[in-house]
Amino acid sequence: MDFISFDNNGVIDIKECISKIKPSTKAIIMTMASNVLGTFQPIKEIAKIAHQHNLLIIVDVSQAVGHCNINMEELEIDILCFSGHKGLATPRGIGAIVMNKKYEITPLISGGSGFLSFEKKQPESLPEHLEAGSLPIELIASLQAAIKENKEKNFIKEQQLTTYFIEEVNKINNVNVLYPNNKNRCPLVSLHLNNISSDEIMDRLFQEYKICSRGGIHCAPLLHQQLHTENCGLLRFSFSNNNTLDEVKIAIKALKQIMEDV
């Protein structure tokens, strides 16, 4: 397995991607938007490269779904996966893997099909082939409702809140926005606090202002190694249509007051 770095705009290095394709390579696996950087990646361009080399293109859209329209056919994605609890705001524990029909998937778990109970293997028919045991009906319903709601969503508000936040927090001493000039991003902003502990600031934001943010390494240690933020981490803010401009202003003011105090 090889890893590909990103450039000064938080975008995957396409030349490096091409250089790391070997005869043994089977697939290119990537995120549509990083949960740390927030920047959208050139999926269609990478997909074309993958297919030129007879490779699968597998894309995790967890951070992007719910914040933009995603068309697998247009982007030439072979396999797409996501969790629902991020941009779609479902309860935790539900997600999906969506595959091109020309590919088949082998069940991870067999048994308890509900109508072929004496069989050790799952039925060949879909969706029963992939439905072992009792299904989380409530979570499935929540995902269906979230996807339906997302089809009618206006993404402009989220982008406006994100742009305003970036412009204002960049004025605070010891606060640096990752890739502030890259507007092609989901409504997620990570801040480097000049080697001040992001976890400490996260705790103070919640304890003193009841503002939820996320500090630390964000389950992405290799990315933080490239950013050289292993010791202090980054402070991440995310926005949705449920947020208001007044809430964003309160968060900016709170962060400014805390940073003046440390």
From TrEMBL:
This is Aminotransferase class V-fold PLP-dependent enzyme. Residues 3-249 form the Aminotransferase class V domain. PROSITE patterns: AA_TRANSFER_CLASS_5. Gene3D superfamilies: Aspartate Aminotransferase, domain 1, Type I PLP-dependent aspartate aminotransferase-like (Major domain). PANTHER family: CYSTEINE DESULFURASE, ISOPENICILLIN N EPIMERASE. GO terms for molecular function: transaminase activity. Belongs to the class-V pyridoxal-phosphate-dependent aminotransferase family. Keywords: Aminotransferase, Pyridoxal phosphate, Transferase. It comes from Thomasclavelia spiroformis. Pfam families: Aminotran_5.
